Structures
1.
Amino acid sequence: MKLVSAKEMLDDAVKGHYAVGHFNLNNMESIRAFLLAAQETKSPIILGLSGGTAKYMGGYRTITDMVQGFINFLDITVPVALHVDHGKYSEVLDAIENGFSSVMFDGSAYPIAVNIEKTKEVVRLAHAKGISVEAEVGGIGGEEDGHIARGECADPNQCKMIADLGVDFLAAGIGNIHGKYPSDWEGLHFDLLADIKSRVGDLPLVLHGGSLIPADQIREAIRHGIAKINVNTECQIAFTEATRKYFEENKDRESKGFTPRAVLAYGLEATKEMCIKKMELFGSIGKA
Ligand code: 13P
């Protein structure tokens, strides 16, 4: 199975009232964990790459070849999209030239006029190659952000302007943030989400910062048109906690437990389990 654009799987998710999980790659083990989780549950999946991880893992061409190689080697038959996460313009162009099947151009830090201009150009270049495009309006807050309790919120008018450029799916801040949520977090703003949805119609909407959001809010977000949910932190924590347990139980001192493959196997399995747990919550199981 060749890598696919994320457009069709997300249009199907909107029609079917579920969401497809976007899981961030961090290393080779995560490629294996996510592909096995998707295949085992017959779920479509989007594998996302931040700019930092793209550099760490050898650049876009290396990652494309690695992911496609694993798809072939593991006989993966479910749809897999390989997607740039929060791409800068130059990163998006690099990924388009190097085999990615989907890109996110994050122009949310630019004035809206510049965001529009650059997004338009990304849509032109990506669509010429059958690559799907995600755009962003109203940045997603993060741990260092000054407005953590609320998270940034998108302007619905701007969402409509970006949607009209022909993007395939749209990330809009609705109070969500990356990483761990603070105890005084106000929750997702469903009134804003409903307003955005009423202006963009059936365009699939994307929820970033999908880790550690209470399950009832995730279900409500899907009911309001969220069709792609990005998860990274919870999978990272699952990997690291499992690895910690491995050492705490002195498994590295047993037999060949010191080999890196044995050490990393625990984290890989925990990542896969977390991925399946999220797919269950998102409703994507059996949809491939
Ligand atoms: P979390 O790390 O909060 O799960 O967010 C992931 C994300 O939104 C990647 O774009």
2.
Amino acid sequence: MVAIIVHGGAGKANSKEEIPPRIETCKKAAAEGYKVLKDGGSAIDAAVKAVMIFENDPLFNAGIGSYLNEKGEVELDAGIMDGKSLKIGAVSGIKHVKNPILLARAIMENSKHNFLIGEGAEEFAIKQNLEIVPNDYFITKQKKKNFLSKFGDTVGAVALDKNGRIASAVSTGGTPNKAEGRVGDSPLAGSGFYANETYGAVATGIGEDIMRAVLSFRISLEIEKGIEKATESAIKYLTEINGKAGLIALNSDGNVAFVYNTEMMFHGYMKEGMEGPIGGI
Ligand code: GLY
């Protein structure tokens, strides 16, 4: 069994017109990640591929199109985890790396550390020959307009490969108008993402809330009830502590879950036996 689930952010759309193209991109990310898995690629390869599709699409709050901070700049966070080795790569507060998920992966695979921030992370990116861009590259007209929006979202993917390995990957511009230097849940293993041999998960929503619940790891607490019930319980707990977010999750049997207490969560998934990806809100 190979399978992938992706999300393009929880919250609400800024306009009705945004909804269909966002769902289309979720389906595209799921389909392209699935193709990687069918061609024998690893869960890491597939999750990174899917997240890069979102990072390169200006409609989403990751990579190009990210929200601006209170100084009018873009600061990016990303994280990745391999469920078999429990290796982590995470990055925060970067301003010039075109695809932050590639930097998270490079940290996981080629660095002695788990988590790099700011200038040190960008120096490492240069050594890894990753593409560097001016900060203006990330700033789209649409996101400038939404500078004062209260909506926070993120993108992510969880994949299961033919060897039964699970990987989770996440990327975000954080919340709109955030303080310079603010770090959300996304690059924090356990909160924004988590993977082990049983399941993987990625969160989206208000990072300050997600961290209080350690939301992605929280699924572990009731995993014996199945991935759907465990994911529902994690979001139920978040609601009890007045948090707002969504979660996607996938287990080693290829079962998917997507649960949120926001107005909507853009998502898509594809697994063996399906003719094409399913996408929705
Ligand atoms: N969930 C993304 C953030 O709060 O930064």
